[in-house]
Design brief:
By secondary structure, the chain is mainly α. About 75% of the residues lie in helices and about 0% in strands. It has eight helices and no strands. Helix 2 crosses helix 7, helix 4 packs antiparallel against helix 5 and helix 5 packs across helix 8. The longest helix has about 55 residues. About 20% of the residues are buried. The model has no long low-confidence stretch (mean pLDDT about 85).
């Protein structure tokens, strides 16, 4: 039996275990909430995790390309990019699939062909991990660009006010509209 067939056969259990492993990367109370709350709107992060891992797993079964994975990991990487995860922690969810697959497929089997096929699967999974890391870095770059632009704009407003004060022309002094001082 080919690895894809075995994976498809155990898909539900593998996805469940993978979701548990990902939830384990969050604080205990959050992980319990993810497991308990199934409503999409009450638990958008948990729902997002389920949607993303389903898409990634389906892509691996279908030997998808990098563009597919970029879309598949995007939602989860975006969420983890704004949370308090390091880059490695943010994309480690991809590697957790290895453990979920091994937990499920190697329960009763020591077949060397299966082990070889799992190693091939690991190579494909590494490609997804690299795409996820690139997506994470893209999100972090956007966040840093937004912060830099905000700082630049704030600096320009301060300079304008300072120049207006130097020439003592109250008409040139604009009220500070930035409420995040």
């Amino acid at each position: 039996m080919a690895i894809e067939d075995r994976l498809a056969e155990h898909k539900k259990q593998i996805l469940k275990r993978w979701a548990e492993l990902i939830a384990g990367t969050y604080p205990a109370e959050t992980a319990r909430f993810f497991a308990r709350e199934k409503d999409r709107f009450a638990n958008p992060v948990g729902y997002n995790i389920q949607e993303c891992i389903q898409a990634i797993f389906d892509g691996l079964l279908q030997h998808a390309d990098g563009d597919y994975y970029a879309q598949a990991v995007d939602g989860l990487v975006r969420v983890r990019a704004i949370q308090e995860f390091s880059a490695g922690q943010a994309v480690a969810f991809v590697s957790l699939l290895r453990y979920a697959v091994r937990d499920e497929l190697l329960k009763d089997d020591s077949d060397t062909d299966l082990l070889r096929e799992i190693m091939d699967f690991d190579l494909a999974l590494d490609q997804v991990l690299l795409v996820a890391f690139d997506a994470y870095m893209g999100c972090r770059e956007k966040i840093l660009d937004i912060k830099a632009r905000e700082l630049r704009n704030r600096h320009q407003r301060i300079l304008k006010r300072y120049e207006a004060m130097l020439v003592k022309d109250p008409a040139l002094i604009e009220p500070d509209t930035d409420t995040n001082n």
